[in-house]
Amino acid sequence: MRPPLVVGVDVGNSTTEACAAEVDDAGPTRLASSLTPTTGVKGTPANAAGVVTAVRKALEAAARPGAVVDTVLLNEATPVISGLAMETISETIITESTMIGHNPETPGGEGLGVGTTVALAELGGQDGPVVVVVGAGADFDDVAHALNRAVEAGVDVVAAVLHGDDAVLVANRLTRPVPVVDEVAAVDRVPLGMLAAVEVAPPGRTIRTLADSYGLASTFALDAEQTRQVSPVARALAGTRSAVVVRTPEGDVTDRRIPVGSLTVSGATRSIDVGVDEGAEAVMAAIGRVAPLQDVSGEPGTHVGGMLAAVRDTMVDVTGQPAAEIRIRDVLAVDTMVPVTVQGGLAGEVSRENAVALAAMVRTSRSRMQAVADEVAAALGCDVRIGGVEGEVAVRGALTTPGSAVPVAVVDMGGGSTDAALLDRDGRTVAVHVAGAGELVTKLIDSELGLDDREAAESVKRHPLAKVESFFHVRHEDSSVQFFDEALPPHVFGRVVTVTPEGLVPVPVRRPVEAVRTVRREAKRRVFVVNALRALAQVAPQGSLRLLGSVVLLGGSALDFEIPAMVADALAPHGVVCGIGNVHGTEGPRNAVAAGLVDAHAAALVAP
Amino acid sequence: MLVVAHPDAPPGVLREVRAGAEEQGVPTALLPDERSAADPAARRGAADSRLQVGVGVGADGTVVVRHALVPHPVLTLPADAGAAGQRQAGADAARIVAGGALRAGEQRSL
Lengths: 608, 110
Hints:
Chain A is α+β, with helices and mostly antiparallel strands. Among the domains of chain A are: 1-78 and 367-393 and 595-608, 2-Layer Sandwich (Nucleotidyltransferase, domain 5); 83-89 and 258-363, CATH 3.90.470.30; 94-253, 3-Layer(bba) Sandwich (Glucose Oxidase, domain 1). Chain A is elongated. Helices cover 36% and strands 19% of the residues of chain B. Chain B has helices at 11-23, 38-48, 83-98, and strands spanning 2-5, 29-32, 53-57, 63-67, 75-77. In chain B, strands 2-1-3-4-5 form a 5-stranded mixed beta sheet. Chain B starts with a strand and ends in a 12-residue tail after the last helix.
């Protein structure tokens, strides 16, 4: 007769893992493992379907489909629910159309032209220098002809501003070359009869005069006070290849801090209010001052208040606990820069504004795993037991990684939270969950690159980048080159792409590979590295990372192509051995909890 | 970049295609070819151009963009594509020379 069949199942935030084994007095004999997406929110009865699927898949993988299962072991899932919010805390507003600062792909001519704005139709007879403003629908030959004729008639045409993408075409046809800025979508809102300056930098350069406060002062003969007022214009134009600045009586460009509400962080002995617009550092400092954190609430009626309320509502649904009993136990705030369309801009200008991203996490002691267990028992007709606190089981599973030793700590970086646990020399375990993980990284990548496309952001997070340099080769982000026998499709030509197992996928950005790579790595560093250190410091003996010994990385993000190395690099100065888990020497960073449940069950049989 | 066109090719189409390339900073040369339709004309342009990119314009105004090493057309534009489309085809042909991302078939604006 065969020994009883036992299946350990770990319900995670995004995946449910199962490990099937035969267990007798000699210990467990592992047969196979499986992986399936978690159904429903972790810790809710909806998980049962995923558990059943995972068990059946494991049996199939063990070549024993339909075998009679003796016992299914479920983890006591700690319901950790996280919410995300991002608030822009600064904005740039242009009033009275004073400024156009954008990067048309192909401006025409180069240099600086300063004159009075005149519509093309009104051109002729002006004294003094003029900047010609050309509306939509004008043909490049007609425009060039009109400008040439005006110059012949004695008008001092010093620059032009166009609606269409015609700047090079017009500039090439001028008898007297001047700087030409094009693709100004709202050119009809450029004020006429005002003094304006147009600057186009040579290829590969950025403008110098209009992006400098004293350059503006010299151009428009400003006094010290006026120069101070226009300095935001100079700052806003920095880094562009072409720009137009129009001097109007009431025109202004302002930077403004947006009030987005405050957080009240409460510890055991005191509470502190901190404005989210003060930035992530201030929020994290406040949390540090009240530690250990007991709860966080947001100012009612503000964005932050709304976000924290949404996290609470989700938790009420999951646990059935009243909202008043739900406590937010951790918050991670991250500073970020997001591209925002400038209010009052004429050419769809985008400025990079400050924003703060927040991840909040709720824990509850009450879990509904028993309901999951009952459903699984009914579906499979077997005994279902709930056992083992997740962190404790995970750490025992991780300890089966060859080369690891007690004291051993695990870091499991998931979707919503980063979890750490420590098993010390006396056999005690401590576990913590901190807010912020993969979802926050995706969100940061999405907003910092201005993708507004979660799937594209997820692809950037998961896969290395490359630039398609010709129809037959790509340059990877490490600058190595790969050639292809068959021509690459036109939709990836010249683009930054992610290199996925399914092929090259274009990333919808107009930024170089290096810039996208920096955004990706910075997002991972600010969330995964910061959180791994934060969580480990909470479980480390005396809070000292030096006393940790081995750190084993578990979970899906341990499979990421760069996160394990980033975390290991950050831990190296503390003398910690850190690496990717390899449960039982074969399972990789997956299955630590499922295998740990089976091991614990077998150990209990031997020594009850 | 070579634009190989049938002598009867509509002048408006030729003007837009060449303007698109010029705006991108790529010079064009026009080569009349009365035997060929747009696609063989583009193939000939690509083969003869040192930049390996050729644009063919048929008598009816069809536009085809080819690269010498790519076995199929990179872009094909019907005769009634309109001035903006023709300008963009010329610009995209120039972008192939410059190694820039093509605008044709772009799912979303960047």
